[in-house]
């Protein structure tokens, strides 16, 4: 899991995901032994963002492994694990200024994290609300990312619309004779 080769890291987390999804008798010892390493790996991503698609794939596989761990956990343990995952995903977000100059892999990580947050937050709304209430910096970072994403989508939509409006689809006749 601590290999330098990003492809090895990616395959490692794919394997870990399948182990976490195994029967509890098999999965629990691995979760206890490797879960903390998985969290440490994801925490390091904020400081050293992926620079290549291969590194990005390793991070995304790590997130999938964390989601598998959450799904495998007992119902009473899930809120604590979600409370670990959500700040990690928020830490992957870039502000609008950094997003413009970020390498493609970091930009893709930002987009994937935002998509995961949009999917997970409604499923775990109580955990999300308490996390945001207790951490104003997480709230502001998430708000800035969502706002930047909306502005980006609006800019793309407005750049597509003028081209469509410049050539009318129906021409009107003014000479009825």
TrEMBL record:
Signal peptide: none annotated. GO terms for biological process: endocytosis; intracellular protein localization; retrograde transport, endosome to Golgi. Residues 30-156 form the LAA1-like C-terminal TPR repeats domain. It comes from the Eukaryota. Residues 154-169 have a biased composition (Low complexity). InterPro entries: ARM-type_fold, Laa1/Sip1/HEATR5, TPR_LAA1-like_C. Residues 153-177 are annotated as: Disordered. GO terms for cellular component: cytosol; endocytic vesicle; Golgi apparatus; membrane. This is LAA1-like C-terminal TPR repeats domain-containing protein.
